[in-house]
Amino acid sequence: MGRVIAVANQKGGVGKTTTSINLASSFAAAEINTLLVDCDPQSNASSGLGFAKDPERLSTYDLLMGAASAEECLQKPDLEQLWVIPAHKNLIGANLELVGADNREFRLRTALEPLRERFPFIVLDCPPALDLLTLNALVAADAVLIPMQAEYFALEGVSELLDTVERIRQSFNPALEIEGVVLTMFDERTNLAQQVAAELKKYFGEKLCATSIPRNIRVAEAPSHGKPVLQYDVRSRGAESYIRLAKELMEIEVRRRGERADADEGSVVPDHAATDLTAGDAGPELTPEPAMGIEPPDEPAVVEEAPSAGDLSGAVREQEPAAEAGAEPAAAVADAHPITATLVPQARTPLCGQPPVQPGAPAASAPHPMASDYDDLLVCEMNQESNPIAV
Ligand SMILES: Nc1ncnc2c1ncn2[C@@H]1O[C@H](COP(=O)(O)OP(=O)(O)OP(=O)(O)O)[C@@H](O)[C@H]1O
Ligand SMILES: [Mg+2]
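Above: query sequence and magnesium ion SMILES. Below: predicted holo structure tokens.
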């Protein structure tokens, strides 16, 4: 099963879309079939990968409304092994149209289920609001990656997001993890950035990604060319950082799969499936060339010639192993994670007054609350200030 990562932070302009595009592209450049789902009516992830606005094209709206399957919504950007389900501004309507619908929180999860075997990574770009769209993304996700700028106000918004994550765990998706917190637009030269990073490290511990993303003009320019930064300027610091972040998350995933395979006594899963994120995961039509595995974390990085923009396949493998990245097993990292203990109230009333969904229970059997039960969850619903598309 692929790993579904929601890139979320209800604060606007922190680098969610930039991270979604460039992380997904870096996975793809590492020869891992990757799907990016644009869950934001602003549709920046779609335009940033070269998809012009087109109301006729199937999009995330059709997916959520049950009008099209995920397979039918797949679009192909100009990067091998990357697929996109684009968004259109009509997605803002789903927030309203789904309020009275059955299983409204599980729409995305159910829709993406058939694709999870084919894509080792599915990245969800969330809007800057804790609305029904973000809720759908967090219910569909295995983990949330939180981009954050190194500024003092950042923590305020994050504690709100962590509170939401905890409540989604209790009511809809008990397996939801924090994938990590990644510092974006980071300027390591300033004392302020250093101090804030140190402070965040105290809060987030190992969940603060070892890789931070520097402010880099090539990263900001790339979307206007409809390209991820590694196709726009693979040698830029921005491209290098996103490649390193992808490698950091890939190493954690490889380790997680290895641990899962070890724990699964008598498993019929073939040995390679534990460590090879690419082997056999994609359907034939999604594998243009035989895919190569990525190296297990303990092997030394393969030193190759620096790739050109036209030869991205070695880009991720060529990077130095991320310093300290995932030095501990993923399970140990999760145990050490201090966030919920420090920032989230320990006991919360489940949103719908029903027992939490059991891990592994099919989405269809999961309880879902009435519309009024989650009103307080949607703290920024249709917030016109944070979402300029809202009218
Ligand atoms: N590392 C970076 N270096 C320079 N500019 C960046 C970097 N990351 C993001 N930006 C710029 O910052 C702005 C906000 O980024 P982005 O759109 O990714 O944020 P967002 O969180 O998705 O925003 P929203 O909340 O509106 O969805 C964009 O103009 C983007 O080009
Ligand atoms: Mg965005």
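The chain has one domain: 3-374.
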